[in-house]
Amino acid sequence: MAAAIPRRVAILVVSVLVASIVVFAFMAVLPGDPAQVALGINATPELLARTRADFGLDRPLVEQYLSWMGGVLQGDFGRSYVTGEAIGPQLVDRLGVTLWLVGSGMLVAVVLAVPFGALAAVWHRRFGGTAISGLSQVGVAVPAFLAGILLVQVFAVQLRWLPSGGWTPPNQDAGEFVRGLILPALSLGLVQGAVLTRYVRSAVLDTLGQDYLRTARSKGLRPYPALMRHGMRNAAVPVVTVLGLQLTTLLIGAVVVERVFVLPGLGSMLLDSVSARDLLAVQGIVLVLVVAVLVVNFVVDLLYVVIDPRLRTAR
Questions:
Q1: How confident is the model at residue 36, as a pLDDT?
Q2: By its UniProt entry, which SUPFAM superfamilies does this protein fall under (predicted)?
């Protein structure tokens, strides 16, 4: 395992480098002039030329990329073309909100999917298993933003148990922070939990058919205890793969959910920057999201080796 880590880290670094080039190139070919956006349609040609020079837009693209990437490596994402404010501190603040949302949504998904998916497999072809499979199928068909709207209508508008939106930092008021996070986390977690439940059911069903599970049951263990004691670790390998994919899906889904619940996360910042045509801010946000996806995949690769001992000795 230790020998594989440097290779995987090297792959991660190369992937981040390639991703940064792709993101920069994509933003560079988009139509529009950031200087024109910043100054307005009445700006004089002389002022536009001076602003482009201030932004560094008059330099060759290779030089612009190296300058931008050099700043990113030092935590400097540049200054907004529209507001003139530093982008880096805003990214850090917004990323914290998004991580809380994605982390709590994934926690909800796992807490729901693992026991219900296992029960759906153990109760295969029984009423309980069929009911869980049917409910999960319905959950898969519901978009996260629609789930959020329905939750707001029920728990915020009608019952008035929870706030309909807004954000309170945890260091200001922990109680309001938790109350404000419940509905957004549920809107993400319920949908992803439904998807994960089906994968857990499939993985557990496959594990239940293995010889070592039959041997455990022949010794007197009931299906669920035998599965928990001997089978869940083997069933976890494909589930971890899906978890990695779902984390990336949650990052994308958070963009819309943050709008529904008025959360100041990366998704809201991305949409605001796109609408204002603040391309440098969009460039930084997209890079952060892409790097987050690559890091998730890197962690999933390491978890494979931790979960499955066979991979530690494979050539």
A1: 74
A2: MetI-like
